[in-house]
Amino acid sequence: MNLRFDIQTIALVLAWAGIACWGICFWWMHRISSRQDTMLKELHEMTERIEQISKEGHELMRDVHPQVGEIKEHVESVKEAVSPEKS
After folding, report:
1. Taking a C-beta distance cutoff of 8 angstroms, is the pair 64, 70 a contact?
2. How does pLDDT run across 53-66, given as a tens digit for each residue?
3. In this predicted structure, what is the pLDDT of residue 86?
4. 3-state SS assignment for residue 34
5. Which backbone phi and psi does 84 adopt, to 5 degrees?
6. Is the pTM of this model over 0.85?
7. Where does residue 25 rank: exposed (0-12), middle (13-18), buried (19+ CB within 10 A)?
8. How far is CA 9 from CA 4, 6, 15, 16, in A?
9. What is the 8-class DSSP label of residue 31?
10. With contact defined as beta carbons under 8 Å apart, do 65 and 59 qualify?
């Protein structure tokens, strides 16, 4: 009878230890999940800022693009005028 009591006691202690482990695991996963949510919110805000900057950059490129073509034409004409082969 003494042996049976010891086995039941060990089983009860292990059961409580298992319940405690589940509680700790749940708390830990909740904590990790909260950190991930915070990180995802920060990343989302960052991507929105990057997207806004990218849109502004595209707008600037649209404004500058026609001028770039004109500059290329002027550079080509200056290049032809200055080239040593023409002298």
Report:
1. no
2. 999 988 887 777 76
3. 57
4. helix
5. -70, -20
6. no
7. exposed
8. 9, 5, 10, 11
9. H
10. no
